[in-house]
Structures are given as structure tokens and as C-alpha cells.
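Regression test attached.
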Amino acid sequence: MTATTPTATSNVTERQLQVGQIPARVLVGGTGEPVLFLHGAGGLMWDPFLDALAGDYTVYAVEHPGAGEGDALAHLPGIWELVLFYDELLDALELDTVRVVGHSFGGMVAAELAANNPRRVSRLVLLAPIGLWRDDAPIPDIAAMPPESLPGLVLADPNSPLAEMMVPPADDPQALFEASTRMASILHFIWPIPDKGLDRRIHRISAPTLLVWGSKDKLVSPVYAEDFAARLRTAEISMIDGAGHLPHLEQPDAARKAVLGFLDDSATAARGR
Amino acid sequence: MKSIMFHLMPYRDLPADFENKHESIWVTPPNSELCDPQRVAQYYKWNLDELELADSLGFDAVGVNEHHQNGYGFMASPNLMASALARRTPNNSAIMVLGNTLALYSPATRVAEEFAMLDVLSEGRLAAGFPVGTSMDVNFCYGVPPTQTRPRFREAEELIIKAWTQPGPFAFNGQYNQLRYVNPWPQPLQQPHPPVWLAGGGSVETWELAAKKDYTYSYLSFFGAKFGKKLMDGFWAKMDELGVDRNPFRAGFAQQICVSETDERAEQEYLEHCSYFFNKCLHIPPYFFEAPGYRTRRSTEFAIKTNQPGEIAAAAALEKNWKTLNEEGFIIGGSPSTVADRLIEAAKTLRVGNLHALLQIGSMPHELTKKNITLFAEEVIPRIRHIWDDEGWTHRWWPQGAAVRAVTDAPDRARV
């Protein structure tokens, strides 16, 4: 899932940077002010949602460290070092202040980044983020289920074409292992429960924040939207009908509208906020 | 060859519909619904009686291991069982704890302490097993991130050996164990420390550690020598590559064994219990076997190259009738001479000098288990004990305080 998709219309380039001891891979596309995008457990790919962002912004989509070969994770024992990695990466990209969009695990990292260095993040979009925990709405253990049951959990419509890209071919052990390694690089930071203390730090976030949730998200229940909103200084919720855990891909028009509308400062001003 | 009576301590009375009704024997089998402590009290008595019988009949060792939330082995603390055995094995068998899952203990000096206690309590009869541990135990039951499994294991191994061999107190500044004062009382009786026995399922890194630190390696699987050959060939190729000798006592393997008066009788008596084991006790979904990040890239690439995923799937798909189980080598069953012949063939094929004999299998009742142990001790052990004598190797990894029942004449003259 590292190739650009055929639907990509922007001119996307790949940049390799060295951040301390860790190699970073960044897909860059579009023009305009910078947006940092942090992906979820499915891995980095240039998808139609990033294409839409790239229509108005320069999108920097970063691959989480440890998804490929190498020993990046040995240098990143926990979420704290991962956040510092992203902070250093922004320096390496010569980006001082950015809008940040993160999905799922990427949403958790985006929130941690904005809490760690609030002045660096001007606007924050969290797409179905993890990072908080409720005993009455436990987030299922994605490592403890057969891969073929993932689409039913992640997608509002498990028969949608999106299901195909989620399950690697069962007859190709190397492909299965690469998928497993990408997953491992995420689980490294959230095992066994995706609550690593964001609750103690989230109050530091100063950026206005948009929470985008699929109303049918069975992986991270929409009840978490209120938990995030209650802890953030300035937050709004966009609940997307007919979407599961990938609202930006399942209902692209609605998600795009909500996200682009929020990222645009002037539009916010026009809405009278 | 050394014979170790190895006990998994399974639940012997799982319901008939267990495998259809429940996700797994391991991690998630509901405890209040399925595990009756009254029955477990009976099992524990039987299990210890069976191991004590093995000691009295002349096995070289009695063996226990560690699993968690597991219906085929709920010996969460093998050290508790080993301490009971240390007091009730008058024939001085070695006490093989294979082992303590190092990555689970923080600080890992807990293992150094308990193993040292066992070594002293048993007067130097402890074999100290250091398994990396399964993904089920380490990642799913104990919540260790899969990517930390091996780093934690390696650090714990280093800390424990230091705690045993370096005069205390000293400081240890690890990533997972940070201690100002490492100074366990007592240190072990055996010098420089109890022999370390690694155990695993074919990770290249574990073989390298065995070579580097001169530890034994036991290949633990339930699929027999035919399946294990590629693995052990890989182990010996690694030893050759690293300039380590081919002493068969460096290596061990686990085998399920059923002995009766005749081959036919073995099937009549034992098939039901073997079926119980393979159908219920190995009812584990694939996703529990390897959480993403549990296995390293190098070991995975070796596994793919040797087609292990394909062979495991094929083994799992086989119908587990007596003929198949025996032909595939999952079980070695039959008369004493059949069993001895096949064990010798397996040991020679794998080049191993230590047999972890699994003689209580699945639902096998106490009386039948005693029969199996007795026939094995009286009629099989004498035929397999001396199979490596002609090569003249010394077993340098046997606990110093354990009775030596297989004396090899003048091994040093013959070999060194």
C-alpha cells in the first residue's frame, strides 16, 4: 500500500529524509500552505482524499516509522519519542506552523503532536482518532481477529471496493508479512490498549479542532467524539452518515467538504466564529 | 539420549462441543464457564503423582513449563510445580523447567531469584529453561507489545546471567529493567550457573544465541520429527556456520508418545485422548500465533523460504486418525519396540540427545498415563538411552546435582 493510486491526479513526489537515526518517507503533492497528514493502521497511500486536500494545500503525507525494513522502532520505544520524531521532521521539512490532519492512529499522533508543541499546529483535523479509552465502548483488538473480518468492522459497507485493499492476498506469505510489519509499526505504540496518556495532555492543544466521525464506525465508536470534544478548547464534530472508520474514503464528498471547509481560515471567519 | 518426562498439565474434561463453541483453547477460553477449580485440584495431584512416578522409575528428568490462560496447560507458574517436585523426587532426577518466559517478568531478577531457589532446594538439579515464549502468552495474555518480545527476552537473559555470576550488589541500567542494586540471595548452587536450555519454534535469533552462549536448544512442537526436520537441519547448519560442534546433547525435541503391549492395543487405548488433544487442545486461531511484530524479518524470511506456513496449514488440515497421526509423526505410538525404533529414527534424523517425552496427552486418564509412563521407563528407555554412546560426546548441559543414569564411558578420550 505504498504506491500512488491510479486515481491520483496531483503530481505527487516522494521525499526521503533522515531524521536523527530514523529514515522518513514523505509523499508530497499539491500547492499552497502546508498540511501534514498522518495515516492510520492501513499504511501510507496517496488516496482520493489526499488528492482533494492537494487541490488547495501542499500535502505532506508521512509514513509512520518502522513500516518497512530497518530498526527505526528500536529508536522509538514509546509515543513520546514518536512525537519528537514528528517535531524534528517538521524542522527537516522546514515547516514552522502547519495544519495537521490525522486518521485513526494518525489522529492520536496528531493530537499528541499538537499537545506537545501547541504553537506549531494552527488547525487540527482528527478523523476517527484513537487515544482515549472507555470501558463501556472498548475498541476491538484488530490483532485478534481473522483479516477477513476487518472490512466488516472498519467499513459501513463491507462489500464496498475499499474492502479489497484491506486484506492482503492470503497465498502470498511475503505480502502478508509486509502487511504485518506495517501493522506492527502501529501496534508498537498502542499495544495492548490504545490509551497511552493522551487524556493527561490533550488540554494543552490550542488549535481549533475538527472531529470527523463515521456514524457507523464499529472500530472506534462515535461516542468517543464527545469525549474528545469535551477535553479540547475549541472543537466541532462532523458526524458523517453512512460511513464507518474510513469516513474520508467511504463518504468522500461529505468528508472533503467538512475538512476543506474547516481548514480554510477565511471560511471559518465567514461562518462568524 | 536423555528422557525427560514432560507434563503440559491439560484440562482433561473439556466439553464435547468445546471446539465448536469457543474461539480458542488459549487466551480467551472463558475461565468461569470451563475451568472448575475442584477438578483442577484433582488434576494437579495426578500430574505431580505422574511426574513423581517417572522419577522413581528412572527417567533422567521431570519437566514442566509455563503457559497462561491455556486449557491444555494451565501451569501459570512452573516454578511452583518444580518446587513441589524438588521435595518429592528421591531418585534425584533433574528438574527441567522449560521454562520461565523471561519477557514477562519485570524486573527479570524475579526469575534469577526463583530459579536460584529451585537450584538450591533441589541441590543442583535445576535445568533453567529460557523460552522466548509464545505470542499467546507474551503478547495477548501479558500485554507485552509484540515488537518488545525479543528485546525484553535478550535483556532479561543478560540480566539473569549477570545476577547469577557477578558478585552483587551491582547496578543494571537496561531499557526494561533498571536496578540500582542487583544482589539476589541466594545465587545458584551450580557453578557457574544452572545449565540454560533455550526452547523455541525455529527462530534464527534463538539458534544464534544458543551458539554464542553455548546453551542447549529444544525444538518444541506437536508435529513430530518429520515436520521438525527442516527446522533442526536449519539449527545444525547454523551451528556449522558458527563453528559449533555437532554434539547431539545441544539439542532436544518434544514428542507425544503412547506405549502399550502391542501396536493395536495402543490405538485402542490412546486414540481417543490424542484426538482430544489435536481437536480441542490445538484449537487456536492463527491470529493468536503471531501478533504482528512478534516474529522478526529474518526469522519470517527463513520460515517462508522453508515453507513453514504452508506445512503448518497442511498439518492442521489433516484428519487426525491413528494412522495419519503416526505416519506424520505427530504421535509415536505402539508396542515398546515400535516406539523405541521410531524414537531412535527420529532422534537420529534430528540429531538430538534430549527427548521431552509427552506421555500424558489430552484427556488421558491417570491410570492409563501411569501405564504409559511405566512401559516407557521399563521397556523403552533401556533401548534408547545409549543411542549416542558410540559417538562419545559428553552431555555438558546436564544439571550437576542430578543423578547420572546414562554413563558414557570415557567420552573425552573418544572425542576431544
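Expected vs. actual: identical. Chain A touches chain B through 23 residues (CB under 8 Å).
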